[in-house]
Structures are given as structure tokens and as C-alpha cells.
Amino acid sequence: MLATNLSAIAGATYLLRAHHIYNLEEHEARMDELEGTLRGHIGLIEEALDRLEGKSTDDDRGKKSGEYYSKRGRDEKK
Q1: Alpha-carbon distance 62 to 66, whole Å?
Q2: C-alpha distances in Å from residue 1, one per residue of 6, 7, 8, 13, 14
Q3: Which terminus of the chain has a lower count of CB atoms within 10 Å, N or C?
């Protein structure tokens, strides 16, 4: 009886751990996607601000948003 209980607890723990790890990986993927989207929007806002201030040309259009969007991952501290 004790062995059955211990094996049931061990099995449940293993399954819960595996499910938790899967959820963590899915959450990280969603956050990476969200971060890229936010970075792209920040680039668009900065480009619009530069256009309003007269600091950009037509050649600069789309440059910042593409740069920010492709710069995924955490900013490295120097």
C-alpha cells in the first residue's frame, strides 16, 4: 500500500512538473512575440515623432521599426 501511494505521488509529481515546464516555455514564447511587437510599435512611434520634428527623410521610413522588431531578446547591460 505504501509503495502504491509513493509511486502515485511520484507519477503525479512528474506529470505536473512536465506540464509546468511546458507552460513556462509557452509563456516565454508568447512574451518574446509580444516584446517584438512592442519594439516594432516603439519604432513606428519614434519614426512618426522624427517626421513631426522634421528629423527624418523618406529613406529612413520603416528603418527604426524594422530594427527594433528584429532586435528581440533582452537588452544586454554593459
Answers
A1: 6
A2: 9, 10, 11, 18, 20
A3: C
Contact 47, 62 (CB under 8 A): yes
What are the respective helix, strand and coil percentages of the chain, to the nearest 5? 80, 0, 20
Per-residue cell: 56: 527624418
Q: Tens of pLDDT along 2-21? A: 999 999 999 999 999 999 99
pTM of the full structure:
0.61
Residues 6+ apart with CB under 8 A from 71: 39
Q: List Cβ neighbours of 72 (8 Å cut-off, separation of 6 or more).
A: 32, 35, 36, 39
Residues 29-73 have pLDDT tens digits of 999 999 988 988 888 898 888 888 888 776 667 777 667 666 665
